[in-house]
Amino acid sequence: MNQKYKKKEIGSEYQYENHKEEVSLNTKKSNNYILTFSGRTSIETVLKNEFQIKKALLPSYCCDSMIEPFRQARIIVDFYDVYYENGIKINVSIDNDIDAILWCNYFGFDVSMPDMKEFINRGGVIIEDITHSLLSNQVYHKQSSYLIGSIRKWGPVLSGGICVALDKTLKEKPQECPSREFVDKKKKAMTLKQKYLSGEQEICKDQFLNMFSESNKWLADNYSNLKIDEESLEILKSINWKDVCQRRCDNATILYGGLEKCKNIKPLFNIIEMNSPLFLPIIVDKENRQSLRKYLTENKIYCPIHWPKPNDKCESNLYDIELSLICDQRYDKDDIKRMVDVIKKWDKDITDTKRER
């Protein structure tokens, strides 16, 4: 490995940062918009406003956190097909008993929503998850009735989700604040990580990792009826989102160019479909994905898998072959080039091993 590259860790939870005063988020009070505690809370908010929903159609490629609010609302859930076949494929077939559809935008890349006019005309509700398209030029599709999303994926906030009603009024909104214990623990974990990354020797890594784990468990178990905490709201106001988007695009472009000759990986999306990437998702054969992820981890690069398979009804080959490469604003071109070099070394080793068989 070229020693000129910094060996800092890449990926995992955000560390705490000092923020510049560059307010770019409109937080005026509105009857059709609220910042919630999490994406789960946002889905719950929609379901409380659309209490007539009895059966919903969700993507077969999704996170269990997207299913959980439907489960808690005792709404029957079915799934439409999302899978990989020389690119991402989405096939939506809507039965007559479906009241709502959850549409998911993936990774900040352009994917068209099919024509839902007939479904809308019979009173169907389209809920669009904009978590991955939050900074895209086209954040949502015009057919949607509601927009929901998690903001936590994009920056160093303690909590954060968004819920928007399009041409409707949100009569039911979260009213309570997150517990002070959660806010303090999450902030302390982020602060300890920042100190650890800056080289403070006395910081034990397991300490903040355990605190992150405990905070995430609390979030998963206690998301109901909560709005965003005040500290996260102030952080959101201070983030230069235009710069965030540009840094991510620049980093993803370096990854595309550096990895194009690799024989054992391929991008899930063509670069021309890139808008504002949350991650750069790649496709790796099932038997090689764990090998690549392990090799990256050994080099202090922590790339997540989207997602653990929620249940047997969620049929998609993407659960077994997708890996999300880090491209976010915390990292500069040298960090990304180091990741490229690590992956290329792994790719060469795998290719050489195949030749020897």
Strands, total number: 13
Share of residues in strands: 15-25%
Lateral arrangement of strands in the main beta sheet: 2-9-8-7-6-3-4-5
The share of residues in helices is: 25-40%
Write a structural description:
The chain is α/β, with parallel strands linked by helices. It has helices at 39-49, 64-72, 117-121, 180-197, 205-221, 230-238, 241-259, 286-298, 318-321, 333-356; strands at residues 10-11, 33-36, 55-59, 76-84, 88-91, 100-104, 125-129, 146-150, 161-165, 265-267, 280-284, 301-302, 322-325. The strands form three sheets. It has an eight-stranded mixed sheet. A hairpin with a 3-residue loop joins strand 4 (76-84) and strand 5 (88-91). 40% of the residues are buried. Residues 1-6 and 19-29 have low confidence and may be disordered.
Tell me the layout of helices and strands:
Blueprint: E1 10-11, E2 33-36, H1 39-49, E3 55-59, H2 64-72, E4 76-84, E5 88-91, E6 100-104, H3 117-121, E7 125-129, E8 146-150, E9 161-165, H4 180-197, H5 205-221, H6 230-238, H7 241-259, E10 265-267, E11 280-284, H8 286-298, E12 301-302, H9 318-321, E13 322-325, H10 333-356
Parallel strand pairs: 1-12, 3-4, 3-6, 6-7, 7-8
Antiparallel strand pairs: 2-9, 4-5, 8-9, 10-11, 11-13
Helix pairs in contact: 1-2, 4-5, 7-10, 8-10
Characterize this entry briefly.
36% of the residues lie in helices and 16% in strands.
For the structure shown, list the relevant keywords:
single chain, 357 residues, alpha/beta, 10 helices, 13 strands
